[in-house]
Amino acid sequence: MQLATLPTAPAAPEPPFVPGLPILGNTFQLKDPTGVPTAFMVNAAREYGDVVGLTAAGTRIYLLSHPDLVHEVLVERVNEFHKPIVTSERPQTLDRFLGEGILTADHAAWRPQRKLIQPLMHTKHIESYATTMTHFGEKLVASWTEGEVRNIHADMMQVTLWIISETMFGTESTHTKDLEHLARIAQHIAISDTMMPLPTILSGGRDRQAAEINTKLTELVDSLLDQRETGDRTDRSDLLSLLLNTVDENGQPASREFVQDNILTLFFAGHETTANTLTWTLYYLDQHPEVRARLIAELDAVLAGRTPTLADLKQLPYTLQVIKETMRIEPTVSSVPRYITEDLELGGMLLKGHSTVMLPIYTLHHDPRWWTEPERFDPDRFSAENEPKIPKYAYLPFGGGPRVCIGNHFALMEAQLLLAIIAGRYELHLEPGTDATPLRQITTMPQHELYMRVHQRA
Fold it and tell me: Model pTM?
């Protein structure tokens, strides 16, 4: 007797692909002079759906533009979606420069690092840095004079550089300016790796430049470690000392490679991101005087002109709302890449293995399904009443899931304290003729120097 064969379930279809040129695909649409082409990604999602495919020089890229899909990638199926670490078959990105630090390591190497570094970000350590943050905030505004025009992005980069130097190295290290310069070049290379991967035969120039940057970074970090390892670090509370004093669950000290990779990771992630957020916050306050008026009223009522302290932050909820809304409308990281090694099904669609999956944070933050009038700057979205109504994973300024940014509390505390100092003392107005176009690369900064005129408040 012949047994009846059971019908097989139909295979999931591939998602629609945005039409492109033969061979090149969407290369030129992705090759946006302002960095990550957020407008193209937003339009692709709205026209083709929450799962849409792109191609660039033979590489498949899938955009996932729904919070539920993002939740699957970052939480429910996190082990299926990898960090884009360098192999012969996979794209090269920030791991060229950060090695296998906590930001770039794939799951197996990341888990033990997270366990070691998480205690360093404990509230008792982070809160101890509040005085350092306010000290350098005061130092910055003390350098301003009534009516002068400032390159405000440069000022925000400077004050966060002072802070990360002190909190990381325990001193205003002579190396931090060099690290900042090298980080900027590394970012240009990394964004090219992500959005414009090249075959080996064409990548020689980019690879040589990356190797030169890596050599300089290694020399700088080795110098810092040599200086610290020869001195007494038992009573120091800076992050470098905490990293050097870290021991694993077997009581073994952290390796030099672990310390080096994570020094660079914490420096890069803890410096420019907050500077960019503050820059855009000051820009949007100028564009929205009604928001600035409410912010100033709160600062005056709580601080009355004095320097804020850590204890004041709970009394400054609108100050934090302004920062959160800035990170929504102009997220400092506009998209997050992952890599899949095998075919898999997601959202009812077949995603082919050896492809890049892109989580377009900017698209999620500007989707009218989750945000009423998404282009409007409205800090009340993050009031105590409204914030719980925001769909989970529609707002991702620090990523999400187990790999959520480990420094998010540090960044928010720093931004809130610095904004309270600056807005409490000065009103800033965009200088006529200044171009405030964003440059969206690994992080989002002004494409040109952002000039603002500073006026002391009475």
Answer: 0.86
